[in-house]
Every structure is written in C-alpha cells, then in structure tokens.
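Consider the tokenized backbone below.
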C-alpha cells in the first residue's frame, strides 16, 4: 500500500472513532508531518485523497476539516424499489410559483433564493460596460445580434471551453435568455410530447417545470448527495423505457451540491450514447468551484455530439441580464428555429454589454473573489447551523456553489417549516419543490451566499428554533 494511502486509512479510522469529529480541523500539514513521521508530500497526498473521497473538506482559512457523513435521512434508501420512479405527467409549476412569489418581499431574509447574494456581483464594472455600449451601439445592433447571438460573445464562450480542452465551434453556440431558455429549447429540440425523459431525484425544479410544459413523461433516477446519479438505476431506466433524453447536472447539483467524478461523467456518456439518448446538461454553477480547477462538464467526454451543454452568466456575473447559452452541436440550427418561434432573440444591448465586459480582464478577477467569498460564507453558515440546530437535523455540505441541503427527521414536513419561517420573514426552499413524490418533503435547500450579518445570524438561529419546535 502506498504511504499516503496508509496514512489516509489511519485518519479514516480516527474519524470513525471520533478522534476527529465532524466539523473539526485536522492537524495542519506540517503538524501532521511531525505527528505521523511521513513526509510533507505524503501528508498532502493523503489529505487530498481524503478530500476526493468526501472524508474531509478543504477550506482556505481552516485547512482540512472533517466533512459531515451523508446521514440516512439525506441519503436515498438503498433498496432497489426506490431506484427508479415513473411519472406519466408532472404538475409542480403552481406550487413552485407560489413559493417563489411569497418570498419576494424585500424584508425577507431569503435563504430560499436560487441566485447568489446580489452584492457579490460586480455591478459597477458591468454598469460601465453598459454605459459604454449605450454610447457606441451601432444602428445595426438588432440585426447583428439575432440568433445564434452576438458573435464576439459566442467566440468568448468558445474560448472558455477551449481553456478546458473542449473544442466548441462558436457557430454551435446559441445565446439564450438565461440557462433556463437554453435548457428548455434543448429539451424541446430532442423530444416530442409523451416521450420519456430521465431526470434526477431530487432535481432542480426548472427541469420538472420543463417536463410539465412539454407534456413529457419522467423517469426519476435515484441520486445520491455525494456520488450523484445512480448509474445502475439509469441503466435500468434506459433498458426498460424508450428514453429520448436525460436532463441532469454534473457539477454542484441543485439542490444536493455534489459534483460527479470525471470517471462517472465518462461512464454516464458511454451509457447514454450506447442507448442513443441525448444529454441535456445543466451546468450553471461550474464557475463556482472552491479548489484550483474548474470541473469538466460531461460534454468533455462526448465524442458523438449527443450533449447539449447549457450554462449562463446568471450565477457568476449578473442575474438580471438573463444571458445564457447552449453549446448545441448539430442541434444548434434546430434550437435557433425554436427560438424564432418563442422569444426571437435575447436583448441586443445586453449581449453587447456582456461581450464588452468579458473582453476585459475583470471577469477572472471577479470570479476569484466570488469563489473565495462564497466558500467563506458557506462554511460560516454551515458552522452556525451545526452549532444551533437540533441534533436530529442533518446538514449536507458540499465544496462548491452556495447551497446547503438540510434534512429534518423524516416525519417532519419542511413545507410546514417554510410556512412558519415565512411568517417571520425568513424563506427557505422546501424539498417538495425538487420532486413530484413525497420523498424529500422533510428536506430543504438553504442559500448560504448571504453575508453573516446580525440579521442573517438571527434568522438562522430563528430557523433552528422553529425546527426544534416542529421536532
Ligand atoms: C440548476 C439551475 N439551472 C438553471 C437555472 C436557470 O439559470 P438562469 O437564471 O441562467 O436561467 C437555475 C437558476 O436557479 C438553476 O439553479
């Protein structure tokens, strides 16, 4: 056994035996070198191995911290019956609409919101680009920016793919109104009403709404908070139903937070292409990683052009501009035609503004700051929750993005918690938004991008009190 594996095994044993408890900081690299007698390199490799296996999470300020276990209340049941669930029709939009509307009041501390805290966006710089665009906009701007969208912007996006070793021709990219339009048009381009589509369970509610809108039938595949979609269950779905498309997230999944390993992304692509099934890949959080490298999309492993990769600037730069895209490969033309029948195109001045902003060096600097702040805030929120929540509540932490998934004991309804909290101007996203069955009704998603001000701290503590009351 390699030395670093040996050391990692020793530390796992210590964690199992509560020598190092959840949330507790492991000895620094240097200290561990002294304690264990192994070299610094061995210790570093051991810590990295533990991190890749989900035993610890690294945090720039606190070093390596013991990660929470994936508790039974969060992890899906191991029995096979739950692996696959079938839904002939979906009816979730009204519920999601009501929840989102109710949380819109300015006074609400919005832990239910799907976007990062707006103060994290570089508003001044973006405004400067907006003003410059307004001054210099050519009279032909409406025509120049029709589908597939602004050429400079598409070239910038293609270069960002190239920086990860992924070749995407700018002509395969279609600019859309946020990722949501990209995802919806992508799904529409590869399905017809009544077709079967594979979705994760739990899934981003936008996927469920799209299936409802397009009258599609769903196969919900068991998805684990740490490892993501269950590939055996996926295989079962593919071999028992004539599936046309699979819509899922590979990086920092909403609501659970996991990122699929590269190996799993590769296997996923192999499975889907063996059954000639399109992948609609939702990758809106890929810039919000905490480590040193941006995770690859599954599209990076696709040699057959069956992946429609959708993303946007909504989570990383500016939410209100509503600019996203799909790298649609051979489906790009079909998507443009569908766009012609719906929104025609996204706003020309906004596309030009983004093209202007992204041509500067500001975006990379902003992203670095954004990632650092999100990591800090999420970690602080997690610590605060852990220290105030009743012990029956499980908090699932993931290293990326800004969501925390919380599970109450299974007999407690998180929608009830949502209603109680809203009366006190606190909002959460109850688990019922992310599935069409009752399976996640005891869970909720919490937005951890807010700065821990007095108001936010009070709201988190209040949530804990309400949970205690319900339990
Ligand atoms: C997982 C996921 N996909 C897509 C979207 C939509 O992104 P956009 O605002 O760019 O349309 C969201 C927004 O909440 C999301 O959370």
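A designed sequence for it:
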């Amino acid at each position: 056994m390699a030395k670093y594996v040996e050391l990692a095994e020793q530390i796992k044993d210590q964690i199992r035996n509560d020598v190092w408890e959840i949330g507790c900081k492991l000895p620094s690299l240097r200290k561990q070198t002294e304690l264990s007698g192994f070299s610094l390199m061995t210790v570093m490799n051991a810590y990295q191995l533990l991190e890749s296996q989900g035993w610890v999470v690294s945090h720039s300020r606190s070093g390596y911290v013991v990660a929470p276990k994936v508790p039974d209340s969060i992890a899906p049941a191991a029995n096979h019956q739950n692996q696959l669930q079938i839904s002939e029709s979906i009816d979730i939009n009204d519920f999601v609409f009501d929840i989102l509307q109710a949380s819109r009041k300015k006074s609400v501390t919005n832990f239910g919101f799907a976007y990062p805290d707006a103060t994290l966006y570089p508003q001044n710089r973006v405004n400067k680009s907006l003003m410059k665009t307004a001054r210099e906009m050519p009279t032909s701007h409406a025509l120049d920016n029709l589908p597939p969208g602004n050429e400079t912007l598409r070239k910038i996006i293609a270069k960002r793919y190239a920086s990860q070793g992924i070749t995407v021709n700018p002509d395969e990219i279609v600019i859309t109104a946020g990722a949501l339009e990209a995802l919806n048009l992508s799904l529409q381009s590869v399905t017809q009403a009544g077709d079967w589509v594979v979705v994760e369970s739990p899934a981003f509610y936008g996927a469920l709404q799209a299936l409802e809108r397009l009258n599609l039938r769903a196969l919900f595949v068991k998805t684990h908070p740490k490892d993501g979609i269950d590939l055996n269950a996926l295989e079962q779905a593919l071999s028992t139903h004539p599936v046309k498309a699979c819509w899922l997230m590979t990086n920092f999944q909403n609501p659970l937070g996991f990122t699929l390993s590269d190996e799993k992304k590769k296997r996923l692509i192999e499975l889907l292409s063996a059954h000639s099934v399109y992948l609609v890949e939702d990758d809106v959080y890929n810039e919000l990683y905490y480590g040193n490298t941006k995770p690859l999309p599954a599209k990076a492993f696709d040699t057959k052009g069956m992946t429609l990769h959708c993303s946007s600037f909504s989570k990383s730069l500016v939410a209100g501009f509503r600019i996203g895209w799909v790298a649609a490969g051979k489906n790009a033309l079909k998507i443009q035609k569908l766009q012609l029948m719906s929104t025609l195109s996204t706003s020309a001045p906004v596309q030009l503004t983004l093209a202007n902003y992204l041509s500067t060096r500001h975006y990379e600097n902003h992203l670095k700051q954004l990632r650092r702040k999100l990591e800090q805030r999420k970690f602080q929120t997690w610590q605060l929750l852990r220290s105030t929540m009743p012990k029956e509540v499980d908090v699932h932490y993931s290293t990326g993005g800004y969501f925390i998934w919380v599970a109450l004991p299974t007999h407690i309804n998180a929608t009830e918690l949502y209603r109680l909290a809203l009366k006190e101007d606190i909002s959460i996203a109850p688990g019922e938004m992310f599935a069409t069955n009752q399976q996640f009704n005891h869970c909720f998603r919490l937005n951890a991008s807010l700065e821990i001000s007095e108001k936010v701290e009070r709201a988190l503590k209040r949530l804990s009190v309400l949970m205690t009351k319900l339990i």
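The longest helix spans residues 362-388.
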